[in-house]
Design a protein that fits this description.
Strand content of chain A: 5-15%
CATH class of chain B: Mainly Alpha
Oligomer: heterodimer
Largest sheet of chain A: 4 strands, antiparallel
Number of strands of chain A: 11
Number of domains of chain B: 1
Strand content of chain B: under 5%
CATH architecture of chain B: Orthogonal Bundle
Largest sheet of chain B: none
Strand order of the largest sheet of chain A: 8-7-10-11
Distance between the termini of chain B: 51 Å
Radius of gyration of chain B: 16 Å
Number of strands of chain B: 0
Structural class of chain A: alpha+beta
Helix content of chain A: 55-70%
Number of domains of chain A: 4
Helix content of chain B: over 70%
Shape of chain B: elongated
Shape of chain A: elongated
Chain lengths: ~725, ~100
């Protein structure tokens, strides 16, 4: 029974429904018990499926659960089907595990919030949608989850909607994601057109077979696979905050911190990476699309790392760090090193969630403020938080032994060693790898800056805040410790392949995403040594600048290059550029459409026009309603007279046929209207006034004695009403 | 007297009645004009009945008279009622249904 996958997303979804409908009637205790237990149970069910049912089936495609046919039309049939294979099982575990921890953490973090039930309802809804995204066996099912997590992201970013900035951050996230979603949809439809199916395993099989339907040229000399992959990557870039659609993620920090940890660091934003890995076979068919993924990933990693140098908000730094780390993951999957990308996703889920939860813990202590220029010396007041932060910090910097070290190296070595690009695009791999090394230096620098500014030196907070500094309660520290442990140890699943128990994750994922890259151990050691040196250099540099608070070199640097610092602090003004290039013109267009189309065309002409028409007709007809009984009577009398006339009027022959044969004349009338009762026809052929032929037949003939012009007159009589009408014709007889 | 003479009288009566109904403003006069129209119809019925030797026309005439009496009663009641509420019987002033 536990192998029924549908239970996994259903539990949090049901809990969400219950909490939305009935949550506010329950105490906080009941609310968080329901919410945490739903996710906890989902974790247990997925762990049961993952560890006990899945290993036997992993080579043959994993567990499946078909709930039913969702819709069918012609050849198209989409099942509401779930599948847990090596990849989705791992994701499922990450989502439920981190999700459960963050639910527990939230019970402490949100303890004093008014909207307790609503928060947990949304959080549950998110978990359900994310699990649907992960487990969905076809692109449409995945898309429900994809949209569902987008919705929850919107709802939770704007959770404190009382402040306009939060609400508009939610809208920004949602709208930016819609741009990506359009790409997802287009990619999905392109794939359907080529492969005639939405089922992910079928698409992957088609791609692995190198089917001609996918390699056929579509536009600009590129195959279908390239365009589908590119559009899908646009979707991934929206969801996973990559250039050019990354702008929403920093603003998304307006939401509660557990949300930032769960949605905007550990799970939802990795959905794009997951999707690319899931459809890896398709990307391998189109090296150019892979190159786009890798290049965008490397650029994003570098760009976001640079922006993070100068941010002064705790969560903003972490947000840019997340964007940067997602860039790492995209380089991983973009160099065909899918296991490497997923490995980094896995370790990142631990250390980034840990970092965010530390941020939450710190902000909890600082009365909600996240300004790192006002912090400092917190290691003494928040010992547990500091220790977890240290572990996660060293992990993200890539210091050896910590988890991030192994996963980052797996990606960088993969980038240098990859051969998926072929001869023309061969430069992409090494270039992306070099970019990542530079980004790693940046990562080590900005993360260490964050650490030194927040936890070391003297406290720069105002005295009132300083007095209230306190370590967070156990329900917050507990999850922190678990995540810290994960950040420390998660690397063991992906040790380099030459080592004992090396590359466990690569072997595990092989049935789902293909074999790991073969990397020479020489390259491996070189990259390890290089990246360790880079991490230590970054940390050292940051210590020189910021150890114990901003120091002399940092001040001198800012004084020497004020312009550069301002540009970086202003995030390269990308938001302003988008504002000018996209938002303003769009607003102008909307305003134009509103004023011209909506106000004038629709409101004034179409809606108002009909109203005016009807009203004026009514005004006209009102004139008849004089209210004077005598006029009504007059109209009645006229109508009655007309009616009598119509009833009593004899039929008009519709046709009068006259045939002349020598001296003989034949006349035939056909009845215009069928009506009951006979008519009498009188024919006067010679025009003498007497009717020569009289009777009920509508035809007669006459033989003329001599030629000449005659007047024919036919009288039609209705004997019932004694009314008649006459038809006259003149004829020439020769 | 030939039938057409009766019919001519009937026609004249009817038109006088119709003109009264349409043109007079006093509700009582209008009701009286309606009586004239009914009388015209009755006269035509009797004339045709006698001309055709068919007694049904006579029977009809009695029905018309009975109904005319009932109509007059109801009509007068309405007029009295209208007069009570608005102190007038002029149809020009009874136009509440004006749109």
């Amino acid at each position: 029974m536990l192998s029924q996958l549908r239970i996994i997303p259903l539990l949090p979804l049901l809990s969400a429904a219950y909490l939305i409908l009935a949550g506010r009637h329950h105490s906080r205790r009941v609310v968080h018990h329901v919410a945490c237990m739903a996710v906890g149970a989902a974790l247990l069910v997925s762990a049961d499926a993952f560890f006990f049912a899945l290993p036997a089936l992993v080579e043959s495609g994993g567990l499946t659960d078909v709930v039913g046919t969702w819709f069918a039309s012609g050849d198209l049939r989409v099942d509401l089907a779930l599948r847990m294979d090596a990849l989705s099982g791992l994701m499922c575990l990450v989502v439920t595990f981190v999700g459960a921890l963050i639910h527990i953490y939230s019970t402490g973090y949100m303890a004093h919030d008014e909207d307790y039930a609503r928060f947990f309802a949304y959080l549950n809804l998110f978990c359900g949608a994310m699990l649907l995204l992960v487990l969905g066996d076809s692109l449409p099912v995945m898309f429900i989850g994809w949209e569902g997590v987008g919705l929850c992201s919107y709802l939770l970013i704007g959770f404190w909607y009382g402040e306009a900035a939060n609400a508009s951050a939610g809208k920004k996230a949602f709208i930016t994601n819609r741009v990506g979603d359009l790409g997802f949809l287009i990619g999905m439809f392109l794939l359907f057109r080529a492969a005639s199916t939405f089922d992910i395993p079928a698409i992957v099989d088609t791609a692995r077979a190198g089917s001609a339907t996918l390699t056929a040229t579509l536009w600009w000399g590129q195959p279908v696979a390239f365009w589908a992959a590119l559009f899908l990557f646009l979707g991934a870039a929206g969801k996973s905050a990559q250039i050019p659609l990354y702008v929403w993620l920093p603003d998304a920090m307006a939401g509660p911190t557990p949300v930032s940890a769960l949605i905007h660091a550990a799970t939802m934003v990795t959905a794009g990476v997951y999707m690319v890995a899931r459809l890896g076979a398709l990307y391998l068919l189109a090296p150019a699309a892979l190159a786009v993924v890798a290049v965008v990933g490397a650029l994003t990693a570098l760009f976001a790392a640079v922006i993070a140098f100068a941010q002064n908000d705790f969560k903003k730094v972490l947000a840019y760090s997340t964007i940067s780390q997602l860039g790492f993951m995209f380089v991983g999957v973009g160099t065909g090193n899918f296991a490497g990308g997923i490995f980094h996703l896995f370790t990142h889920a631990f250390f980034k969630a840990g970092l965010f939860l530390c941020a939450g813990s710190v902000m909890h202590a600082m009365a909600g403020s996240g300004d790192i220029t006002r912090m400092g010396g917190l290691c003494r007041k928040l010992p547990w938080t500091t220790w977890v932060f240290r572990i996660c910090w060293l992990a993200i910097c890539g210091v050896p032994v910590f988890s991030g070290f192994f996963s980052k190296d797996a990606i960088v070595t993969g980038a240098f060693a990859t051969e998926v690009f072929g001869p023309h695009l061969g430069w992409v791999g090494p270039a992306a790898g070099a970019g990542l090394l530079a980004a790693a230096l940046g990562t080590a620098f900005y993360m260490s800056r964050l650490y030194f500014l927040v936890f070391t030196g003297e406290c720069r907070a105002d005295p009132h805040t300083r007095e209230h500094l306190h370590e967070s309660p156990i329900e917050m520290v507990g999850p922190l410790l678990v995540l810290g442990l994960g950040a420390l140890l998660a690397g063991v699943v992906g040790l380099p392949s030459g080592w004992p128990h090396g590359d466990l994750i690569g072997h595990w994922l092989a049935p789902a995403v293909g074999r790991s890259l073969e990397v020479s151990s020489g390259l491996e050691w070189r990259v390890m040594a290089g990246s360790t040196a880079i991490a230590l250099a970054g940390i050292g540099l940051a210590r020189l600048f910021f150890g114990g608070g901003a120091r002399e070199p940092a001040r001198r640097f800012v004084a020497a290059l004020p312009r550069l610092v301002a540009v970086v602090r202003g995030k390269f003004f990308v938001d302003e550029i988008y504002q000018g290039l996209v938002v303003r013109p769009m607003r102008g267009l909307s305003r134009l459409l509103f004023l011209v189309v909506d106000r004038i065309l629709i409101d004034r002409l179409l809606v108002g026009g009909w109203a005016v028409l009807v009203e004026s007709m009514g005004r006209l007809l009102r004139l008849l309603q004089v209210g004077d009984v005598q006029r009504y009577l007059a109209v009645f009398a006229i109508g009655l007279a007309a009616l009598v006339y119509v009833m009593a009027r004899p039929a008009t022959p519709s046709e009068v046929k006259i045939r002349v044969e020598g001296r003989n004349l034949a006349v035939e009338l056909s009845d215009g209207e069928a009506r009951p009762g006979k008519l009498d026809y009188g024919f006067d052929f010679d025009g003498d006034g007497r009717e020569d032929v009289l009777g009920p037949t509508p035809s007669a003939s006459w033989s003329y004695a001599r030629p000449g012009r005659y007047r024919l007159r036919v009288r039609i009589t209705d004997p019932q009403w004694n009314t008649s009408r006459t038809i006259e014709r003149s004829i020439d007889i020769r | 007297m030939p039938t057409y003479a009766y019919i001519l009288v009937s026609l004249a009566l009817f038109f006088v009645g119709t003109a009264g109904v349409f043109l007079r403003r006093n509700a009582l006069i209008v009701l009286m004009s309606v009586e004239l129209q009914l009388a015209a119809g009755t006269l035509a019925l009797l004339a045709f009945s006698r001309a055709l030797g068919d007694q049904r026309g006579h029977v009809f005439a009695f029905f018309v008279m009975a109904i005319a009496a009932a109509e007059a009663a109801v009509g007068l009641a309405v007029v009295v009622s209208v007069f009570r509420t608005r102190r007038t019987t002029s149809l020009d002033e009874v136009n509440d249904l004006k749109g």
